[in-house]
Design goal:
The protein is α+β, with helices and mostly antiparallel strands. It has 13 helices and seven strands. The chain has a seven-stranded mixed sheet with strand order 5-6-2-1-3-4-7. Helix 4 crosses helix 8, helix 8 packs antiparallel against helix 12 and helix 10 packs antiparallel against helix 12. The radius of gyration is 21 Å and the shape is globular.
Length: about 400
């Protein structure tokens, strides 16, 4: 896939400013602005509303390239583009027109449910605190999920998501972590804000996956990104795509270093040592296998969608499963390159220690952590149903 000069320039700038982004715990406003102008936050959406109308395999190429430059930038764009696709599908026509057609807005939200939000005839009263809101310092709208309740009813709360203008929220700059520090995934606090019913986002169950693709008016063929609105699995692919870019960068840096680094004892180039060559080849093989399997899984889903059919639960399970595996194996790959770099890798100025810290961050994400394997396993080994797939 060929990239524009503007995109390549963005990647170069992101790489150059990655250390500064880590210190500032935020990417520069200029990088975010350029990504927005290039339509990267609307990657799946139509060109008529500022999107790029990209497929999932094309999205992977773009996210990988950005994460190769800086993992934080890759993660922000991956999460932001999928979130925009979900909101476009899951929001009311009025909100969709206002957000996407009339304005070039971006969003940052947390898929973790916040507090209860009492429902009234005018809307819901939001008084919530969300953690890990990626890109919160630059997005036009911020928010997250809430539990909508009716005071007079005893039914279980309904999960909905809300977005409010960033100026109506408080950004608490608590994101001070070991990896992906530049993603600005701070806490967002909204106090006593009335959000109208028209501005509620019907995620994570915006669309009934059992009927999607089976109606005469096939929403999948006209809006293939609608498939993201059927569960939480889209956020797992964001983790995997970002990790692949970071792992690819680590392999590239290791190959460059080992081509010139010599043994202090023998003077032999490290790349010529059998053990070093073996470890490097195994790491690259792991990367190629993970990328191939992951790309195959997301391609199968996308091709099914554009044909007008909703992908089976098994296909979505395979995507989630490959996302978990890819996320974790990529950490192993980067750790191996870190070890191969030796003492040059442990310096605080070394790219290897930064890559290792970045790649170790997303393995804790709720959609790809060890517990998520129980979700995929439940689907396969029990009743074949899991609404959180």
């Amino acid at each position: 896939m060929g990239f524009s000069d503007e995109f390549n320039a963005l990647c170069d700038e992101a790489s150059e400013l990655s250390e500064l982004a880590e210190v500032e715990r935020d990417v520069s406003s200029n990088i975010y602005k350029k990504a927005k102008e290039l339509g990267l936050f609307r990657m799946f959406l139509p060109q008529a509303i500022g999107g790029l109308k990209q497929s999932l395999p094309q999205w992977l190429e773009i996210v990988e390239s950005l994460a190769f430059a800086d993992g934080s930038v890759g993660w922000i764009v991956a999460h932001g583009s999928v979130s925009s696709a979900i909101v476009h599908t899951s929001s009311s026509e009025d909100f969709r027109r206002y957000f996407f057609n009339e304005n070039n807005f971006t969003l940052a939200w947390s898929n973790m449910a916040g507090h209860d939000a009492p429902r009234s005839k005018n809307g819901i009263q939001v008084d919530s605190h969300w953690r890990w809101v990626t890109g919160s310092t630059h997005a036009d709208f911020v928010g997250g999920s809430v539990r909508v309740t009716r005071p007079e009813e005893t039914d279980k709360p309904i999960i909905r998501s809300v977005l409010v203008p960033r100026q109506d929220a408080k950004i608490d700059p608590v994101w001070n972590v070991m990896g992906l520090a530049g993603s600005g995934s701070h806490d967002v606090i909204v106090k006593n804000k009335m959000v109208s019913h028209d501005h509620l986002i019907r995620w994570p169950r915006a669309i009934d996956s059992t009927t999607l693709g089976k109606t005469g008016d096939n929403v999948l063929q006209s809006s293939p990104w609608s498939v993201f609105a059927t569960g939480v699995w889209p956020f797992s692919i964001c983790c995997a795509a970002t990790q692949l870019g970071i792992a690819q960068r680590a392999l590239s840096e290791a190959q460059s270093l080992l081509q010139t680094r010599k043994s202090r004892v023998t003077g032999e180039l490290y790349i010529q040592q059998t053990s070093v060559m073996h470890d490097l080849e195994v790491s690259e093989a792991k990367y190629l296998m993970c990328r191939s399997a992951f790309k195959s899984a997301i391609t199968a889903v996308w091709e099914t969608v554009v044909s007008g059919t909703h992908p089976s639960g098994q296909k979505l399970r395979e995507v989630r499963l490959m996302s978990v595996l890819t996320t974790r194996v990529c950490r192993e790959i980067v750790q191996q390159t870190f070890d191969l770099a030796g003492t040059q890798g442990i310096a605080k100025t070394s790219i290897f220690q930064k890559l290792y810290r970045d790649v170790s961050c997303l393995t804790s994400h709720v959609t790809v952590n060890s517990d998520s394997l129980s979700v995929t396993g439940k689907y396969k080994h029990t009743d074949g149903e899991c609404k959180w797939l």
